[in-house]
Design brief:
The chain contains 14 helices and 30 strands. The protein has about 675 residues and is α+β, with helices and mostly antiparallel strands. The longest helix has 26 residues. It is globular and about 110 Å long.
Length: about 675
């Protein structure tokens, strides 16, 4: 009789278990969803929306599930409680063998996730708002961890079933089934779950024991921290090794002015009121005069600093990432020329001049590279006021390139025209090849000041030269002839040499299509064309919000002038500009003969060239380097240091000695993507 009763209970238990498992195998089921804080690679916390489904934890930036950040495969994870000294409740998901816990694609087949602060690849630490919320998440995760094993079992025996017809559910199901374990691994995972437990049938929730007896058994076998494994504290060894390491918070630039292609965007129609201002200004000038000390009217100003303007060349820095991978020096210089041309089509509408930077003014920004999981950082500083010299440094160690240089801006007045000359050079270095390219710049030419139509063009000859490979590119930006038509606007032509040998010719329009024709084969192809597809694929620039900038960072420094210009209030713009210029004159008077010392750049006593104080041109070592980042204008690398202890080798993380802490990025291969919210 007793045996029959036990058999009946066993059957009921199996039926209930089967129904429960069947429900939990459906990827459309949401076990739990709520906001959780997740700790980044360098110990900063990011608030993200977490949706727990059978076998997976989906992470989004918002509850609308529109901006997917990443998917954690629970089949690869273990769960542990992590007591915290701070408010809330912490727990940790981790891979026991320190392998990646992330899925390659998103719930809808996304290849690249939204950007946020960098997250670890082999574990995640979560913080719930309260202990009750945290323990609820722990219970739900243990349930979901069990579900992941059920998917394995289903996949191994070919019983996927038609659980859901939605695209999201099918992608999740595919992810889970694609990571199926062996039978032995599956049994080990099932034996570790809460649903099957570490007990035999006589001690589980379906046995003859009462619910209270079962709970007492669990309490007796549990540790002192609530029945779950725990870690000792909220601080691990890497915390002790790299205290205070934080990253600059960047946000994606929200708006950007992009003029149309052709001459129409380079013509300025001057109002009668502004014509009077121009005539007043011209009366003070003489042909050949340098305009660097002349105060220009605000109506011709582009509302951003020249330091900002110089960053226009890096929206297609991924071309340099491609160049660094090319084995052929000819292909490398083609990519370099293509990148060089990509810096000119972004132009303001009309004839506009950026602000002359204030001495000591700085500007910083960066571009994320989704394809290589890297970041190109840009830092610039006004290192001299008379003469006006702007120094800049660009670096992406992971993709293998850096650029440094300085520009002396000169302006010459010729009567009916004037030219803005960018005197200086940039040095492009491919780190792993120790290969340097010296690059010069064209000048900007404005004509029609006294009569005719005011028009802005680029002119002059430039060179891109590599001494190591003997490759040389010569390009000429051509001014429109007096009788030329629209087809003669923005023309460019050039040649590529190796030594004395001509390899190819270049011809086209720098703001539209440029062709390259190889000399030997006469083969012609498009070298550059800023088409709609190319423009949409440009890298997204990340900037520092104004309220987080230092008082001498460009946007914050010029914010009142910019606001007045955007409001079309030229009187207020002139007043605000005068306040800045007057403050600069006062500071210079107080400084007297004492030399100005730039914060980020230094001048070579022999060559007089300016260089970045924190330059790091070491080739990227993936075994040593974790991530490159920037803090307070200092670009640095977070590295792993190999140490020996009791005969065992282990690694910790430590910022590179040449720098100061700040981070922005992680590995796109192991983790979906990130950068703070849009501006």
């Amino acid at each position: 009789m007793r045996r029959r009763r036990n058999d009946t209970k066993t059957q009921e238990k199996k039926r209930a278990t089967k129904e429960l498992f069947s429900a939990l195998k459906d990827p459309s089921v949401v076990i739990m969803s709520d906001w959780l804080k997740i700790r980044g690679s360098l110990k900063s916390w990011t608030k993200l929306w977490c949706t727990l489904k059978p076998g997976v934890l989906l992470i989004y930036k918002t509850p609308k599930a529109e901006h997917w950040v990443g998917t954690v495969l629970l089949s690869a994870c273990k769960l542990i409680e992590r007591p915290s000294k701070k408010d809330g409740f912490c727990f940790k998901l981790y891979h026991p063998l320190d392998k990646s816990i992330w899925a390659v694609k998103g719930p809808k087949g996304e290849n690249v996730g939204s950007i946020t602060q960098p997250l670890p690849s082999n574990y995640l630490i979560f913080r719930a708002a309260s202990e009750s919320d945290g323990r609820c998440w722990m219970d739900a995760l243990e349930l979901a961890l069990s579900c992941s094993s059920l998917y394995k079992l289903t996949a191994k025996h070919g019983r996927e079933g038609d659980l859901s017809t939605s695209s999201e559910s099918s992608h999740i199901l595919h992810l889970l089934q694609s990571t199926a374990l062996t039978d032995a691994e599956l049994l080990l995972q099932l034996n570790d779950t809460v649903l099957l437990g570490n007990h035999n049938m006589e001690h589980d929730g379906f046995s003859d024991k009462s619910e209270r007896e079962t709970h007492d058994d669990w309490d007796n076998t549990a540790n002192e921290n609530g029945g779950r494994l725990t870690e000792e504290s909220d601080v691990d060894q890497s915390d002790e090794l790299s205290p205070g390491v934080q990253a600059t918070a960047y946000v994606e630039q929200s708006t950007e002015e992009m003029a149309e292609v052709g001459e129409a965007s380079q013509v300025e129609t001057v109002s009668e009121e502004n014509k009077g201002l121009i005539w007043t200004l011209l009366k003070q000038l003489r042909p050949g005069m340098d305009l660097s000390k002349v105060v220009l009217p605000t109506f011709i100003l582009e509302p951003r600093s020249f330091l900002d303007k110089l960053s226009d060349y890096y929206y297609h820095a991924d071309f340099l990432s491609q160049a660094a991978l090319e084995e052929s020096p000819y292909e490398r210089i083609k990519h370099v020329v293509r990148w060089y041309l990509s810096g000119f089509y972004k132009k303001p509408k009309g004839l506009k001049k950026p602000y002359n930077p204030i001495l000591g003014e700085t500007f910083r920004c960066c571009w994320l590279h989704p394809q290589t999981d890297s970041c190109t950082f840009y830092v610039a500083e006004q290192v001299s006021h008379h003469p006006p010299i702007s120094a800049f440094y660009v670096c992406n160690r992971k993709d293998g390139f850096s650029i440094s240089g300085s520009i002396l801006a000169k302006s010459k007045f010729y009567g009916n025209s004037l030219s803005a000359i960018l005197d200086g050079k940039a040095r492009l270095l491919f780190l792993s090849r120790d290969e340097e390219y010296i690059i010069t710049m064209p000048y900007a030419h404005c004509k029609g000041i006294l009569y005719g139509t005011m028009t802005l063009e680029l002119g002059g000859k430039i060179t891109i030269e590599c001494e190591k490979t003997k490759y040389l590119t010569e390009l000429e930006f051509k001014l429109k002839p007096f009788l030329g038509g629209s087809s003669s606007v923005n023309q460019i032509s050039g040649k590529i040499f190796v030594g004395e040998e001509l390899l190819a010719t270049v011809d086209g329009h720098w703001d539209s299509e440029v062709f390259i024709q190889e000399k030997r084969s006469s083969h012609q192809e498009t070298l550059w064309n800023p088409s709609t597809d190319i423009r949409s694929a440009r890298l997204k620039r990340q900037v520092v919000q104004s309220e987080h900038q230092g008082e001498f960072e460009s946007e914050r420094l010029w914010q009142h002038v910019t606001s007045a210009i955007m409001d079309r209030d030229q009187v207020r713009a002139t007043q605000e500009k005068f306040v800045l210029e007057e403050a600069q004159r006062k500071e210079a008077k107080e400084r007297g003969d004492k030399a100005w010392v730039p914060r980020l750049f230094q001048q070579d006593a022999v060559t007089s060239e300016w260089s970045y104080k924190h330059t790091d041109v070491r080739a990227w070592d993936p075994e040593l380097c974790k991530v490159q980042f920037e803090k307070d204008g200092i670009i640095q690398t977070h590295e792993k240091i190999q140490r020996q202890h009791n005969g065992l080798s282990y690694s910790h993380t430590w910022p590179s000695q040449q720098k100061v802490p700040l981070i922005l990025y992680h590995d796109y291969q192991s983790l979906p993507h990130r950068v703070v919210k849009g501006r």
